[in-house]
Amino acid sequence: MTISERIFERLEKLHMTQREFSDRTGIKPSTISEWKKNKTNPSSEKIMPICEVLDVTPDWLLSGIDAAASREKSRDYYTVKKDTDMGRLIAYYNKMTPSFRERVIGYAEAYLGLDDKGNKKEE
Hints:
By secondary structure, this protein is mostly helical. It is 57% helix and 0% strand.
């Protein structure tokens, strides 16, 4: 089975139209139609947005082998866009020394124990 065949099989399973898929991935409808008509595959830069929308792993999309690891069950990694707050935080975190990383994690854990006014949450 090709990548494009897996895409259309997954769209059917999700009851998602090609138009909705196009809107959610930002891929032109004509490009998606070409995949189906000519049985061509998407370019590499489109793989991650496709995986996000279809809720599958890149391994599954590319090979069909990793179906059990789709996000329907669980996933041990996140995909984050660089230009988001989360992407910026990860970039900053990656530049820190291990000791500063531990401090940031400690601050985050402590912060989760506070209410909106900065007081310790009641347990």
